[in-house]
From TrEMBL:
Organism: Faecalibacillus faecis
BP term (GO), one: carbohydrate catabolic process
The name this protein goes by in its record: Glycoside hydrolase family 1 protein
Single GO term (MF): beta-glucosidase activity
Keywords noted in UniProt: Glycosidase, Hydrolase
PANTHER family: 6-PHOSPHO-BETA-GLUCOSIDASE, GLYCOSYL HYDROLASE
Family: Belongs to the glycosyl hydrolase 1 family.
GO cellular component: cytosol
Length: 490
């Protein structure tokens, strides 16, 4: 093996989510998911969630990028790039329209079976997220989503249905996407659900803990605890149904640094990293961390954890730790500094790093650092489930999309991955977010593009939906063909 090559069998690929790409939001028996009723937005104008469809309002999930009808075309393009794995999600409401129906929707089951078979046709292994933020709307209205213990049972039934239905077709699973996002503003929507006839404004510029009421904090952590229990029960069930299943967690894993060597900034950065360990310790070690009591006390949270809960968590630990990594954050408590750090509040702007058009710091070294931190703590295989660059792409006069900035980002983060592997980290795969342009989760825009494949669609839902290969498409193909080595040859 070339010293610059990645380990043999390394899983290269791309990642999407059902609600951001499928469209067909009410076709073939599918029910409403919470995410279907998120409006479009921008970085400066927050998205809105309503429990009922409003006339004259654009909901991006209605169209997505029409992957539901075009998945064969899209998977063929993924295969042309050389994908070894396609990380995707199943829409719970497409399988159980109300979340807790007695029987699953057969057309939904058939659709995903067709998708998995299409992947295997090209030698692509599906890696499936069972839950990617899209709680069925009916459960949110009926029982306030993940605040209700009954939702745990509904989720376990849904997951068991997938395990049994797709046994032999899917071997890699993720229980919850970015489960730690339930701690912040996404918790109101993706985690705790919403109340009937309530309108929720998601303010992407105001997500600090200080902005949350004690009641809201309690709801978010209670919902998160229920998700932990659901995940553990599903891991155990998945192993019983098919012992060959590999089931992982998925945690948003931004690196956090102190702004200076002032001890209060160092402690603040340590506290930020505890948000990773809070979730990772429960899902990997099967127990809450030693610091949980003080961590929750600082937030004014009271959490009830029974002895039975502890038993469930200990028996349902994951096989691998998957993560998303896009950027890093910087903590500063001793002075006022620029805090413009993108769609999410990641603290002070780091003066040593350049930013994307959406204010996300470009920090490949942070990826190496966080991989080492995670692996050093848990010593289980790691998988990068999301990494990518959102940018404004334009079709040039020559009719092509030239995106050297995306290639630069990919090269730098590939080198960081290899450095982490050389450090001793057991990293077995990488899926770029997203390999094809899709609806941005944070802002609801199409303008914020991540893909190697351009999709002709604008923020208002206008366009032909035609697919087009960008320059980065050909580079990623080259990278996969060389098993990562090409980034060191230039």
């Amino acid at each position: 093996m070339n010293n610059n090559e990645f380990p043999k069998g390394f899983l290269w690929g791309g990642a999407t989510a059902a609600y951001q790409c499928e469209g067909a939001w009410n076709e073939d028996g599918k029910g409403f998911a919470i995410t279907d009723l998120l409006t479009a937005g921008t970085r400066r104008n927050p998205r809105k969630l309503t429990t009922k469809e409003e006339s004259g309002v654009y909901y991006p999930a209605k169209i997505g990028i029409d992957h539901y009808h075009r998945y064969k075309e899209d998977i063929k393009l993924f295969a042309e790039m050389g994908f070894k794995v396609y990380r995707m999600s199943v829409s719970w409401a497409r399988i159980f329209p109300n979340g807790d129906d007695e029987k699953p929707n057969q057309k939904g089951l058939d659709f995903y079976r067709d998708v998995f078979n299409e992947c295997h046709k090209y030698g692509i292994e599906p890696l499936v997220s069972i839950m990617h933020h899209d709680t069925p709307m009916a459960l949110a209205i009926k029982q306030d989503g993940w605040l209700c213990k009954d939702t745990i049972g509904a989720y376990v039934k849904y997951a068991k249905t997938l395990f049994n239905e797709y046994k032999g077709l899917v071997h890699y699973w993720i229980t919850f996407n970015e489960i730690n996002m339930t701690m912040n503003y996404f918790g109101d929507v993706y985690g705790a659900g919403i109340l009937s006839n309530q309108t929720t404004v998601i303010d992407i510029n105001n997500v600090s803990d200080d902005s949350m009421s004690k009641e809201k904090q309690n709801k978010r952590f209670a919902a998160l605890h229920n998700q932990f229990l659901a995940s553990a029960l599903v891991v155990k069930a998945g192993h019983e149904i098919d012992p060959s299943n590999k089931i992982g967690c998925m945690i948003a894993s931004d690196a956090h640094y102190p702004y200076s060597c002032n001890p209060i900034n160092i402690l603040a950065a340590q506290n930020s990293m505890r948000k990773l360990w809070y979730c990772g310790d429960v899902q990997v070690r099967g127990e809450y961390s030693y610091f949980t009591k003080s961590f929750l006390k600082e937030k004014g949270v009271t959490l009830e954890i029974t002895e039975q809960d502890k038993k469930i968590l200990k028996e349902g630990t994951v096989d691998f730790y998957s993560l998303s990594y896009y950027t890093s954050g910087t903590d500063c408590l001793d002075q006022k500094v620029d805090t413009d750090s993108g769609n999410f509040n990641l603290g002070a702007a780091n003066p040593y790093l350049k930013k994307s058009e959406w204010g996300w710091a470009f920090d490949p070294d942070g990826l190496r650092w966080v991989l080492n931190e995670i692996y050093g703590r848990y010593h289980i295989p790691l998988f990068i489930a999301e990494n990518g660059l959102g940018a404004i792409d334009e079709v040039s006069e020559d009719g092509k999309v030239h995106d050297p900035y995306r290639i630069e980002y990919l090269k730098a983060h590939t080198k960081a991955m290899k450095q982490a592997i050389d450090d001793g980290v057991d990293l077995f795969g990488y899926t770029w977010w997203g390999p094809i342009d899709l609806v941005s989760a944070s802002t609801g825009e199409m303008k914020k593009r991540y893909g190697f494949i351009y999709v002709d669609l604008d923020n208002a839902g206008n366009g032909t939906l035609e697919r087009q290969r960008k320059d980065s498409f050909y580079y990623y193909k080259k990278l996969i063909e060389s098993n990562g080595a090409c980034v060191f040859d230039e």
